[in-house]
Amino acid sequence: MWKPVDTRFYAKRLPVAIAAIDDGGEADFIRTVLEQFNTVTLFHAIGTPGDFLQVIGQGVENAPPYLIISAHGDKGGIIFGEYIEEIDVSSLHDEVMLPETIGQAINLPGTVVINTACSAGVEEAGKAFMQGNLKAYIAADIDVSGEAAALFIMHFFHRLIKTESLEDAWQHAAAYDEESRAYRLYVQDGFYQLTPEGQCSKTAY
Fold first, then answer.
1. What is the sign, positive or negative, of the torsion defined by CA atoms of 155, 157, 158, 161?
2. Which of 70, 98, 111, 195 could form a disulfide with 23 if both were Cys (CB 3.0 to 4.6 A apart)?
């Protein structure tokens, strides 16, 4: 697992990787916020589908403890758009990388992945990401605003650094407002979500 020297400082810093896919500056804002919380960030500026496949297929030795995917999404997939003929787009379907493709490529044992793409938290996508032996996968099952995504991440990491509890950090962040409650927490045997009343429920696969 990726362990930069910062994790051994007297004031230890939490390592977080960010994969930015045509996000209009959202990832830069998230990076700035996280570094205010005493994290050390690794920024992946994704240019092609192949770049992204390399990031999510790094394996146990290089997998980051936390990976934020900052992207646009549709029906559980990640939107990449059009490319020139020289770029390999065989992993895309109508300019979108579908959950099935992600599930075949992902290999990030022990990583917590947070995906800001719209509808990236639908069950098909959650199951696909968890095929990579993740510790957990967090994403919204509906379309949410960029502001809501940034707020969720801010609340999540602020709580995580204080408590070191993944479940507590997710529940704290998801409880903020209606859009935040759309963020599901996927684990190996199912997913957690908050009801409109703020109650936590678990659905098994």
1. positive
2. 70
Whether the full predicted model's pTM is greater than 0.90, yes or no, is: yes
Q: Are 16 and 40 in contact (CB under 8 A)?
A: yes
Q: Which two tokens stand for residue 156?
A: 């999540």
For 120, residues 6+ apart whose C-beta sits below 8 A from its C-beta are 69, 71, 73, 76, 78, 139, 140
pLDDT tens digits, one per residue of 175-205: 999 999 999 999 999 999 998 888 899 999 8
Strand partners, 96: 79, 93
Query: Region 105-123: what's the mean pLDDT?
Result: 97
Helix 146-163, helix 166-174: angle, nearest 10: 140
| Gyration radius of the chain's alpha carbons | 16
Q: Which SS3 state, helix, strand or coil, does residue 7 take?
A: helix
How far, in Å, CA of 70 to CA of 195, rounded?
Answer: 25
